[in-house]
Amino acid sequence: MLRPSHALASLLAFAVPTASLAPAPQSFNGEYTVSFLGLSVARATFSSRYDGDNYAINGTVSAAGLARIFDDTKGTISSKGTISGKQIRPQVFRADYTSGKKASMVDIRFANGAVASTKVVPEPKKRDPKSWVPLGAGDLTSVLDPMAATVVHADSLDQVCGRTVKFYDGEMRANLTLTYASKGSISVRGYKGDTVTCKMGFQPVAGYRKGRKALDFLQNKSRMMVTFAPLGQTGVYAPIRATVGTQIGPLTISARRFEATN
Fold first, then answer.
1. Cα dist from 123 to 10, 67, 80, 104, 135, whole Å
2. Which of 3, 96, 136, 198 is most exposed, with minimal Cβ within 10 Å?
3. 95-112: pLDDT as tens digits
4. Residue 169, Cβ neighbours under 10 Å: how many?
5. CA-CA distances (angstroms) from residue 101 to 6, 74, 125?
6. Cβ-contact 158, 181 below 8 angstroms
7. Are 250 and 37 a contacting pair, CB within 8 Å?
């Protein structure tokens, strides 16, 4: 399982739309807050640009409120790649962040639809082969980075749920399953309209330690819900709100701004 600051970067990245099918260049601005037990613990801002078959995203993340007392995490996240049909093909993902005075970095490179290299700083400690589930030869094929994994291409709200996403964050490979829960509507800066909510399932595949209570809870007991909204007329649907049940209470990610701009 990732270190706390590592996990925060991945969690905030989950709230980022990452690609557009529109032929003309477009941009997107998003602002998100993360709250735990009703208290703000993190903030994130993202700016994205989509030009033809290429996408590029840059963002900042930081701890907020009381969380800064315990873990003053802040950093930057970037991702870029191409779009082929309705398939996102990431090329580079990078997260640079600090927790207090400790600096960390994750750099993932892709080639031919698979992970070509991963660099993590500081390097992970030596794993116990008796409890660690290592990555296999086929585990890093057709996977998406934490940003690319958030976006859904669909013809309508009705077709957003009902899929499995192969997720890789630089250490752990997991499957995220989306099943239909409900429809609704929402109003935030930049968007007012219909939404669809999917129940999300979590299944660790490799790159994790067996018997980890937090992972077992996410897989077997956590209630995770993700609400998607359309990004303009692009055919892209991105998270506008998400809730994740943890062992000590719910974590909520909410968009304060969800706006497509030219």
1. 17, 25, 24, 9, 16
2. 136
3. 999 887 889 999 999 998
4. 27
5. 14, 11, 19
6. no
7. yes
Tens of pLDDT, residue by residue over 72-93, are: 788 999 999 987 777 788 999 9
**Which tokens sit at 251?**
């974590």
What is the average pLDDT across 141-166? 90
Q: Read off the pLDDT of each residue in 157-164 and give the average, rounded to a whole number.
A: 94
Does the structure show a pLDDT above 60 at 16?
A: no
Q: Which two tokens stand for residue 63?
A: 């701890």
Contact 238, 259 (CB under 8 A): no
